[in-house]
Automatic annotation (TrEMBL):
One of its GO terms (cellular component) is nucleus. InterPro entries: ARPC1, WD40/YVTN_repeat-like_dom_sf, WD40_repeat_dom_sf, WD40_rpt. Keywords: Actin-binding, Cytoplasm, Cytoskeleton, Nucleus, Repeat, WD repeat. Component of the Arp2/3 complex, a multiprotein complex that mediates actin polymerization upon stimulation by nucleation-promoting factor (NPF). The Arp2/3 complex mediates the formation of branched actin networks in the cytoplasm, providing the force for cell motility. In addition to its role in the cytoplasmic cytoskeleton, the Arp2/3 complex also promotes actin polymerization in the nucleus, thereby regulating gene transcription and repair of damaged DNA. GO terms for molecular function: actin binding. This is Actin related protein 2/3 complex subunit 1B. Its main location: cytoplasm. Residues 39-51 have a biased composition (Gly residues). It comes from Canis lupus familiaris (Dog). It holds the Pfam family WD40. One of its GO terms (biological process) is Arp2/3 complex-mediated actin nucleation.
Amino acid sequence: MWPQGHQAAGRQEWTAADPGAGSRQCEPAGTRPREGAAAGTGGGAGAGEGRGPPARPRAPGPGPALAAPRGHQLREEGRRAPRPAAAPSLSFPARKVARGGCGGAPGARAPRSPHPGWVGGAWALAATLVAAPVPAGLRLRPRPRPRGSGCGAARGPEPVRRVDCPESAAGAPREIAICPNNHEVHIYEKSGAKWVKVHELKEHNGQVTGIDWAPESNRIVTCGTDRNAYVWTLKGRTWKPTLVILRINRAARCVRWAPHENKFAVGSGSRVISICYFEQENDWWVCKHIKKPIRSTVLSLDWHPNNVLLAAGSCDFKCRIFSAYIKEVEERPAPTPWGSKMPFGELMFESSSSCGWVHGVCFSASGSRVAWVSHDSTMCLADADKKMAVATLASETLPLLALTFITENSLVAAGHDCFPVLFTYDSTTGTLSSGGRLDVPKQSSQRGLTARERFQNLDKKASSEGSVASGSGLDSLHKNSVSQISVLSGGKAECSQFCTTGMDGGMSIWDVKSLESALKDLKIK
């Protein structure tokens, strides 16, 4: 194998360095006398002794052979061609081999991925909103279909990766912040019956994975696969970003403002939770890390009403409650049913009943109960008033991705089945039960498929059985997985409206009283 940099235009003969000198690098001919020449001029056999083996014989022909490509090795029937016994083996420094990029070369180190969203050996491109039941840390962005591809198939709507909207004084949302599956954040304002885009926040270098809007201070915090977070403040008619260095080496996955809006938490693929707060003396945002005993990517976060306890769900099948007490920005917390001693990073609770990635976690309005949903299609609820007893319900649906309390005993969850489901907790018996589906399908007449529709189904979903298989005929309001549920008005104690967003690019607002009147058997306690 010829050394890197050898070219046919300026051919130069290379020989092995003297093995007795301890060097294993190659030297060009002419920098030292050749062994054959030295032996001939010395006039005896002893003149060439101690100078190493003779030079490698050159190939016959009018001139030397052209230089072989870098990293090229002679192969014959799958085996390396033997070298002449008289020629010494040539070896190059490891740094040259690694720089040359020869795959599998001895001593060459594997290249490190330059992408900041590399999490556990896979791309982390989604936040709390995911499109398919794949492991967290393996969230792959769906490739958009080119316009006009297939049999007349049009490009579908981009999935909404993250949505957040603060409550107005009247309780109805007037503005909403969304991420349209890229590195931007769009803010829409309601004008009559329409939503009009009024702002675009462009500061992230990677895809935005989390958004949270503080209603009292009117600040927005965002995080993304570029491993950074930004706090956006409205000055006049412009949103100004402030960089928050999270000190993580993997993508950020989710972000949540604390109830008092004086700090926020960021979960990431670095197996840490960053608790960020503003330092007045230095006029910047700093963060502290909660590390142990997290062993995998943090997927979801939720704050306790006391502004100190933080619930986290991760890919190690655990739901945990930590103390996020920051003495620089808040007073010493009062004792809670979860514990009385709450130094920073203290583990207050850890689940042991889940057998799947914890996609969503939520505290109740009182803070004495915490619920979470896992990838094994189970919902669990831990009650601190009952010595942290855990109630588990295995649902008949596909895995749930998000949940929220709408009363102290009622929860709404949704996921890959594309519709919200009501769950009820009985405090006397300590059990969970399913209250039924909230999105009741409407009766519609069935019709046959045309040839065009069959070809479109084959192109989109690899199925021609019917419109339900292609997603267009689903009997639910959402046509793809529901990835987030947010309380719009009333709070978690007495929710009157909640919002669901999905991978179909749609957002739906649900009125609780209208659901109770529309569904006869529905009882929200």
